[in-house]
Amino acid sequence: MAPNDSVETDGEATGTVVGRRKAARYIVPFAVAGVAAATIGLVPALADSGDPELPDITAQELVEKIAASDQEQLSGTVKVSTDLGIPSFGGLADSLSQGAGQDAPGASPDARLMELASGTHTLRVAVDGPDKQRLSILGEGSEYSLVHNGDDVWGYDSESNEVYHSQATEHGSKGKAEERGRPEGMPATPKDLAEEALDAADGTTSVTVGGTAQVAGRDAYKLVIEPKRSGSTIGSVTVAVDASTGVPLKFTLAPSSGGKAVVDAGFTQVDFAKPAASSFSFTPPKGAEVTEADELKAKDKGPAAEGLGAVGGLKGLDVIGEGWNAVAEIKVPGGSGMPAPGSGDAPAQARQFLDAFGDKVTGDFGTGTVFRTRLVNALLTDDGTVYVGAVTKDALVKAADTAE
């Protein structure tokens, strides 16, 4: 078993391995939480089945092994379990869509991939380089597939026989996903996950090799990433890394509060051979309703979208703190906060919601309400400022006091 070697990021390059591009960087909470939510569809592994004997490796060497991995072809079955301690995102997305007057097609990836942020799901995945990926979410008697092949991205819902189509190259400017060779909205490969996580480095993280495991029948090292300081809702992130290829084979995000993992995702079966070309072929079935992405964009310019414009037009975004303890400060347009539970301005349903899910807090900043999940918490002050981060309630109050 590998020794429990460790490194701590201190902002300085201490050797040639640490000094290299992405390998000198370690994971911080917003990167972990964001990547887990946005790319969870292709994050690996599940059941451990023993602790194999492997050659010793240091944490620095294991990080370098992930960054140097050139494995771009794989296929397999993935099981994803997510427990943020909130109601199903799928139902929430439906409610928000209806409330906004939007009629998004059932095959739109924006809505369907959100389902992965809650509950347990079984997926089939196939990857052949940056231009060919396929993700299928298996349901009871139905299947949703998202296929990227060259310039085309197709989404297909077998239950409703609806199809979504977009051009991978139609976006005006490239985001991080497109810079890595995949279209925005398409789940990342395991290598993408590792590289995006390693991109976010600072001095608040310690990294250790936490032994070995066998995942999906393959020997792996366990990389354990933890915050140095208290105040984060994230207790640790464990990534099982394939000993042969350097591909991440397990991703587990444990909360600092204890209990079951917030995210536990991974391959139950994996094959690193080149997938069949037919895996990435798609033709809309006969009679299917096809929606083009540009049609949805045209609808987004209507009155309903204008009514939501204020949400997307938040100004004055600042970040307080760093790393695991970073808190985003957002000024709500108009400076109006949530009505207090005892306020006559608050509708009965709003007061019930605040009573059930919100904790009233006070500080140098004034008064406000904290809304909590197992991972991300938010403080909404009565004067209309939002503080949000993967931090505890006390850390949010402290950040708000610091900002005043």
The major pleated sheet works out as: 13 strands, mixed
CATH architecture of the largest domain: Clam
Please tell me what the overall shape is.
globular
Q: Helical amount among residues, as a percent range?
A: 10-25%
Which strand order does the major sheet show?
1-8-9-10-11-12-2-3-4-5-6-7-13
Integer tally of domains: 2
Task: Provide a count of the helices.
Answer: 12
Total DSSP E strands:
19
Q: CATH superfamily of the largest domain, please?
A: Lipoprotein localisation LolA/LolB/LppX
> What name does the CATH topology of the largest domain carry?
outer membrane lipoprotein receptor (LolB), chain A
Average pLDDT, all residues: 74
How large is the share of residues in beta strands? 25-35%
The termini sit apart by 50 Å
Q: What would you report as the Rg, rounded to the nearest angstrom?
A: 22 Å
